[in-house]
Amino acid sequence: MRYLVTGGAGFIGSHVALTLLDAGHDVVILDNLSTGHRKAIPSGAQFEHIDLVDSSAVDRLVAQGPWDAVLHFAAISLVGASMAEPYHYLRQNTLTSLNLIDACTKYGVKRFVFSSTAALFGGVDRLPPIPDNALVDPGSPYGESKFFVERALLWADRIHGMKHACLRYFNAAGSDISGRLGEDHRPETHLIPLAIDAMLGRRPPLKLFGHDYPTPDGTCIRDYIHVADLADAHISVIDQICDRSVTYNLGNGKGYSNLEIIQSVERVSGRSVPWEWAARREGDPSVLTADFSRIHQETGWQPKINDIDTIVGSALRWRENHPNGYSD
């Protein structure tokens, strides 16, 4: 098969591209390297340094099909930044995705896999786990921008017949088990790498935002899914969208609190994590965990790496071996 992967130099996109290559497929990666890393592009993938804002360049690349599917990961994705710059996020994520979707329908792409988000459910607290038919109520412009794209894909199906999978995943974590790829965001906002770097003395003490949530230890609970399991889920849905479009939630189905993540890093490393309390952040729900039963029933997919210490351990090994991330 031949696949086009946008954002393939980023954390999740690179792991999905690697999984496709490991399975023997041809992969072309499109990325503008604004947040991704050239060294994260897996060996064997063809790289096209293109910005999705440039609709002409996108058209030229998509016209070089045929593509068995397009997998779309490219986006700006900081929830806090989207609260500070809402229209930038709404414009950027929507415009770039529309350019890609337009080109795909123009040149006959039949299958489209979209990297969506659990931020679609972040507006209010709700009883966990969250099913994929739950009411969409984004808690940030970032989440709203992803929902705009989901709606655009709905119309691409109705009008042009391009089938899609919208994968709404929760907290991606960990790294390639064999150590080929890892997580290197700039700035880093994810709890596990932040806790690891604080433990390693590479950053100031970790801040935990809020200790009065209605949870057993007062801190937020999140569903952590290993990035390799996410990659497998993307592969599993491609066959599902030959004649229909689907929407799935992806997660482990269980949550870990912020304090439990710190405890896991300490267990795995054998060292303490310096941390301190901080005020709540606007828009943080108490609990976000996924009901992934539908994708399991329809594809057989389920997470293989569902132990938090294993997830943390894979992230720790990569951070220890790459103290400066992909700059090493």
From TrEMBL:
Coiled coil: none annotated. Its EC number is 5.1.3.2. One of its GO terms (biological process) is galactose metabolic process. It is an enzyme of class 5 (isomerase). Pfam families: Epimerase (PF01370). Keywords: Carbohydrate metabolism, Isomerase, NAD. Residues 4-251 form the NAD-dependent epimerase/dehydratase domain. Its cofactor is NAD(+). Pathway: Carbohydrate metabolism; galactose metabolism. InterPro entries: Epimerase_deHydtase, NAD(P)-bd_dom_sf, UDP_G4E. CDD domains: UDP_G4E_1_SDR_e. GO terms for molecular function: UDP-glucose 4-epimerase activity. It catalyses: UDP-alpha-D-glucose = UDP-alpha-D-galactose. Homodimer. Belongs to the NAD(P)-dependent epimerase/dehydratase family. PANTHER family: UDP-ARABINOSE 4-EPIMERASE 1, UDP-GLUCOSE 4-EPIMERASE. This is UDP-glucose 4-epimerase. It comes from Neokomagataea tanensis.
